[in-house]
Specification:
Shape: elongated
Structural class: mainly alpha
Number of helices: 4
Radius of gyration: 19 Å
Number of strands: 0
Distance between the termini: 11 Å
Largest sheet: none
Strand content: under 5%
Helix content: over 70%
């Protein structure tokens, strides 16, 4: 029971942080700051912190799911144990896919986007020649973030 409640707490922290950063904080920065380069810099920092929090939550969830005992309790526990094992496998799959989304975004796409921002100079990436490439990377990153956010909702509901 304590493991299940702890899993729910970690899943809720993970999901809430994803939604707060991606769908509240970052859009608010771009809506309120007149300097889009500054807004992008702050948003990038928020997403970096979010990535590290996601990695930590994923590792904690994996440990908690590993620690969950799905062994047989008695001779009549077969179907219940099978359902618990299937549920645990599904949760493991969700956590691993969410972790993969974080790793691909943070260690794959974000460094490429950061190098484009750095090469663009003070005018920003949207003023330079790398605008299209940055837009494509940003679109892919946003799609991955949306998938991760939807999986986070599923993770919370399935606890």
């Amino acid at each position: 029971m304590l493991l299940a409640r702890t899993r729910l707490l970690v899943a809720t922290l993970w999901a809430g942080s994803l939604w707060a950063v991606g769908y509240l904080a970052a859009p608010t920065l771009f809506a309120t700051l007149s300097d889009r380069v500054l807004a992008g810099t702050i948003a990038a920092s928020l997403f970096t912190n979010q990535a590290w929090l996601s990695i930590a939550c994923a590792l904690v969830m994996l440990v908690l799911l590993w620690a969950t005992n799905t062994g047989t309790v008695g001779i009549f526990a077969g179907p219940a144990v099978n359902m618990a094992a299937k549920s645990r496998r599904n949760l493991l799959l969700i956590v691993v896919v969410m972790l993969a989304c974080t790793l691909v975004s943070h260690f794959g796409l974000q460094p490429m986007m950061a190098s484009l921002r750095a090469a663009a100079g003070p005018g920003g990436v949207m003023e330079g020649a790398a605008r299209n490439e940055f837009g494509i990377l940003h679109g892919i990153s946003s799609a991955i973030y949306l998938v991760q956010s939807l999986l986070a909702a599923w993770l919370v509901v399935k606890q």
